[in-house]
Fold this sequence. Notes:
There is one protein chain. Helices cover 45% and strands 19% of the residues. It is elongated. It has helices spanning 3-23, 42-57, 77-89, 100-109, 148-160, 176-192, 204-214, 228-232, 234-243, 253-257, 268-283, 305-310, 317-322; strands at residues 29-34, 66-71, 94-98, 115-120, 139-143, 166-171, 195-200, 220-224, 248-250, 262-266, 299-304, 325-327. The strands form two sheets. Strands 7-6-8-9-10-11-12 form a seven-stranded mixed β-sheet, sandwiched between helices. It is α/β, with parallel strands linked by helices. Helix 2 packs parallel to helix 11 (268-283), helix 5 crosses helix 6 and helix 7 packs parallel to helix 9 (234-243).
Amino acid sequence: MRRREFITLVGSAAAWPLAARAQQPDRMRRVGVLLNLAEDDQETKKRVAAFLDGLQELGWSEGRNLRIEYRWGEANRNANRKNAAEIVALAPDVIFAHGSSIMTPLLQLTQDIPIVFVSVSDPIAGGFVESLAKPGGNATGFTSIDYSMAGKWLELLKQFTPELVRVAVIRDPRQVSGAGQLGAVQAVAPLLRVEVIPLGVQEAAQIEQGISAFAREPHGGLIVTTSPLAQVQRPLIVTLAAQHRLPAVYPYRLFTASGGLVSYGPDIVDEYRRAAGYVDRILKGEKAASLPVQQPVKYELVINLTTAKALGIDLPTSVLARADEVIE
């Protein structure tokens, strides 16, 4: 056999495994998804759709090269621990998780499986990462809270209702973010001549009792800080605000979509879409430790005009002009 023919034959043989691999279907990868809302919640459906769309754009498709295991929650810490344990036991290639209350049990269970989180208020204070620029462990993702944003909530409320002199700040004491947001509101309050009354709540009964007691005196308003409890109990909070004719500011659009007066905060649906990019990068071999935690890039001011009219609030044109969305 001539030398050139031998080299050609060897080269062709070496190419066979590559060609065979190229013809095989993509290897199935597994992603665990841990969420803090119920499966049938409309907001959950929007968020998950954005996450799946993001993955689809990057070449990942459920059933073809991706298997997704979901676990749902409703601000129940016992359920969060159970769901986290079940997902970790499946040993997925990466876990996608929403919120600090889910991250805490997850990181107690694994420091090996990569985790991409969204809507975590303070990942450094929570002990989830070493720094935003260099997470250092097995978790990274998207933080959704800028504490100074809470001061803007009170400014908005005062613009809506100039006669406001009292504001109840609803927070879950178990959430790190609640204390930071309360502090930001308290820092702005003296300039606006508003008294701040913290309402620490951990269950629906406390929410009802706290709001009802606060509403006995006039010229009051509500600020709702971020927490899984507030999101799950948003129908109750919105209903109580309407019953007691209390203007209220909320952290996310899902509250105004449920009948709340106004919301200002990060676009969580956008975070879900962006998180798909981090899941993609980890599935392709990058380490969570080297992917910086990202802060919000898209905020939205949403006003429910129907609720404003029901409360007899004449909204300033300047505020309406700034709104990203007006619900009628």
